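Notes to self, Biotin carboxylation domain-containing protein:
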Amino acid sequence: MRTVLIANRGAVAARVLRTLKRMGLRSVVVYSEADRDLPYVRQADEAYCIGPGPAVQSYLNESALFDVVRRSRADAVHPGYGFLSENAGFACSVEAAGLTFIGPSPRWIDAMGHKTPPGSDCIGKRGASCNRNRWSQDQRATTSTHVDLRALARG
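result:
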């Protein structure tokens, strides 16, 4: 791995950029027309405009991202978080193109992305208990429980 395309923006991209620099790897960033003046664009080794401001027309435009991969000769893609980081199809496309996807495997992205219904996701299938019943006031007062609420629909 020598050149990494960061498929994200702003502070997320800046954090990844700092790490790539410490690792001695070349960085390629993408930006929308609305983000052209953000600091991360100037901090990267290469920067490419991938479309207008709305994310669906730029940061989520996989065709534009793969065009930048080809033009920059990147050999890896870091999705940051949000945007495409929870998209198993995108991770598959990256790997199918012979690139390194810096993140979980598409299989795990897909498995972890299904957050409902309780008990039917990969966590529940691995033995974690999911209580679907309402607890009484006494039960709530005497039970220490970690609750992880996650957004639905890849939120």
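- The mean pLDDT is 83.
- Helices lie at 10-23, 39-43, 62-72, 88-96, 106-113, 122-125, 137-142.
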